[in-house]
Amino acid sequence: MCVPIVGSARDRSDHQDQEIQLLARHAVHSVDGRELRECHRTNLSTLWVDSGAHKIPGRDFVQHVHTRINCLPTAVRVSRGARRSTRDVRCRAGCQETETAAHVVQNCHRTHGGRVKRHDAVCRVIAAGLRRGGYREEEEPVVPTREGNRKPDLVCQKDEFVKVIDAQIVSGVGSLNEAHKRKCQYYSRNEDITKLVEKYAVEPRNVEFTSCTISWRGVWSSRSQGDLLLMGLTKNLLSTLTTRVLQGSHTNWSRFNKSTSTIHRSAAEREGVG
User: Fold this and answer.
1) Residue 121 placed within a domain
2) CATH code for the domain in which residue 132 is found
3) Are 130 and 120 in contact (CB under 8 A)?
4) 72: which residues sit within 8 A by CB, 6+ positions away?
5) How far is 216 from 249, CA to CA, in rounded Å?
6) Does residue 266 or residue 152 have the better pLDDT?
7) Domain of life here (predicted)?
8) Residues 6 or more apart from 176 whose CB is under 8 A from it?
9) Are strands 148-150 and 143-145 parallel, antiparallel or unpaired?
């Protein structure tokens, strides 16, 4: 229902703000909107919406919006209101999962290659930004440990400091800051630090771990953003990562619909990346 806006300009502004807040609360409690509930933590998740400033082509902008609000047509979405059985919404690639946008973009074997490309594109942008900031970076160095080799996406050195960065594009159902924390803890064990200290000849206290954590719908972990900004990366550069992730997610969905491949054992057991 549309409520007429009356009164002074200040009154109208207050009323509009209240309407926006009400719509936002309604959205994040819906099935499609719940993965956007952390958008308010950082404006990096929404800067791209100002398409005039970022010069996003119209077609790309529409695709980004479709991905962000979770309105990409899938078996689950198009069957709303007329669902007769679980078989109607089974993944068309042969997976034993329901065909949601999250499954198609993040887990389905048909889009595995696209997830790798999306992840690698994010790492390339970060690496280029760090080089401009004076860092010497090494991509996917092998760090041997008793539990096997570690291969963080980027190890960057500037003066006597070493920063280890791993990128991940995740589901937004859980806490993004918790996902960031788990990724940092994975590489911050004592043995990993010792190996890095030996390799780069720095003090243990000068080795730090962080991540680039974004959801597949373009929402940032605020702690991940804060760490990357402290390293000297700019908000403009990080904002390009938001749209790059959205573009990659939409491309995964598009390729899924154009592919006719079905699942097989090795693909079913393989985990997606990025």
Assistant:
1) yes
2) 3.40.1350
3) no
4) 66, 101, 104, 250, 253
5) 6
6) 152
7) Eukaryota
8) 38, 170, 213, 214, 215, 219, 220, 221, 222, 224
9) antiparallel
Name the average pLDDT for the chain.
Answer: 82
240 within a domain of the structure (yes/no): yes
Q: Is residue 264 part of a domain?
A: no
User: Which pLDDT does position 201 carry in this prediction?
Assistant: 87
**CA distance linking residue 53 with residue 22, whole number of Å:** 27
- The residue with greater pLDDT, 15 or 166, is 166
**Is 126 a member of any domain?**
yes
Its domain, for residue 187, covers 115-253
Residue 242: pLDDT over 80: yes
Residues with Cβ within 8 Å of 208's Cβ and at least 6 positions away in sequence, in order, are 161, 162, 163, 164
Q: State the pTM of this model.
A: 0.82
- What distance in Å separates the CA atoms of residue 183 and residue 99, rounded to the nearest whole number? 28
Better-scored residue on pLDDT, 254 or 1: 254
7-27 pLDDT, tens digit per residue, is 434 444 666 666 656 565 655
Q: Check: CB of residue 219 under 8 Å from CB of residue 176.
A: yes
Q: How many domains does the chain divide into?
A: 1
Residue found under tokens 């972990």? 221
